[in-house]
Design goal:
With 124 residues, the chain is an alpha+beta fold. It has helices at residues 46-63, 84-95; strands at residues 2-4, 19-22, 25-31, 71-78, 101-106, 116-123. The chain is built from 2 helices and 6 strands, in the order E-E-E-H-E-H-E-E.
């Protein structure tokens, strides 16, 4: 088991790793839409936050030797399902033709200002 860290993604705010590589997989911890090096203030709107989260995920995957195209499973946590159409469109644009398994759930208690959090598992 190997932990992964990149300064190109938000620094963990608690006792966890950005990602762990184990048994041929990369397990990326839930990522919030924070801009690396700019504190804990997410961009405004579901589209911008989705794109920021996915950029953070991509940077962590790259640091772990993987890529967005190697994602096998995604969990999206939304504060409100009313954001889903906008989140889904931005997500689809980022992911392109690649369609990993995905779960969407409501989690109204995310960090202040955050509309979503994304957790992924990818092939190493």
């Amino acid at each position: 088991m190997q932990t992964c860290f990149t300064p190109e993604a938000p620094t963990p705010a608690g006792h966890y790793s950005q990602a762990v590589v184990a048994n041929g997989f990369v397990f990326v911890a839930g990522q919030l839409p924070f801009i690396p090096g700019q504190g804990r203030n997410p961009p405004q709107g579901a589209d911008a936050q989705t794109r920021q989260v996915m950029a953070n995920v991509e940077r962590i995957l790259r640091a772990a030797g993987s890529a967005l195209e190697r994602i096998v499973n995604v969990t999206v946590y939304l504060t409100d399902m009313s954001h889903w159409a906008e989140v889904n469109l931005a997500y689809a644009q980022v992911m392109g033709e690649h369609k990993p398994a995905r779960t969407v759930t409501v989690s109204p208690q995310l960090a202040p200002g955050c509309l979503l959090e994304v957790q992924v598992t990818a092939l190493a």
